[in-house]
Amino acid sequence: MLTNVAEQKRAISELIEVAQFEVAACPHVDEDTRAELLLCLDDVRGELTKSTSVRYALCLKAVVELVLDDLGLDDVETRVSNDSGPIV
Questions:
Q1: CA distances (Å), origin 25, targets 10, 11, 12, 64, 75
Q2: Rounded distance, CA 58 to CA 73, Å?
Q3: Contact residues for 63 (Cβ-Cβ < 8 A; gap 6+)
């Protein structure tokens, strides 16, 4: 379990990066929705750089998970956490 804020931020940043790639490549999403989701992920990344607590970082992670789940890409988080250790 990652308890250090810096470790959480790194892991969530990796998840955001993968999520942005997956959203951009998702064939069943129209261009307007894709643009909105990518902007949302950019906003989350911006907030993540300002976060100073593990709790807030985890709230931001939940937003990324919501985007992925909404697109049916919930397996992305599993792939990322398997590569870099669990994101908790």
A1: 23, 21, 20, 16, 15
A2: 19
A3: 40, 44
Q: How far apart are CA 23 and CA 35, in angstroms?
A: 9
- Say if pTM beats, i.e. exceeds, 0.70: yes
DSSP 65-84: HHHHHHTT-THHHHHHHHHH
40, 43, 62, 66 from 86: Cα distances, Å: 24, 23, 14, 18
pLDDT tens sequence across 72-81: 877 766 555 5
2 token code pair? 């990652």
Distance CA 65, CA 71 (A): 10
Residue with tokens 């069943």: 28
| Closest C-alpha to 17, from 38, 36, 34 | 38
